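Morning. Coffee machine broken again, so started the prediction first thing and wrote up yesterday's gels while waiting. Chain of 140 residues, entered below exactly as on the submission form.
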Amino acid sequence: MIYGIGTDILQIPRLKAALERRGDRLAGKILGPDEMQRYLHRKSRVEARGLRYLATRFAAKEAFSKAIGLGMRMPMTWRSMQTLNAPSGKPIIVTSGKLKEHMEKNRLTAQVSITDETDYAVAFVIVEQQDATEKTDQES
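Came back before lunch.
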């Protein structure tokens, strides 16, 4: 059953201006450890790719916070939710710490879609709640 949906759109030039003022400290406050590693790698190769990566992850975190109904308050934190990639390339949401506990306790899973263009990054998240009577993939 759908628990919540969230969407976010971000003007990349606004993020670029903030990044120019604050440097990679800004990225460090937004990105989780795996995301940060990927961001720095992409940025080192082509700066615009790093910026777009940061923008899509920012938008995904905002959309996710809306979909779980918490906004940016505990247990939701910038770094406790990461948008990583499955081996196929599909973006996946990975949570950690208290947020992971919250997701498991409430039987929540999330799907994310992200995209970017020159000036905009967009993310859409659907959070589903498993019925208590349904078996999880691990139980099957």
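The chain has five helices and five strands. Going to sketch it on the whiteboard this afternoon.
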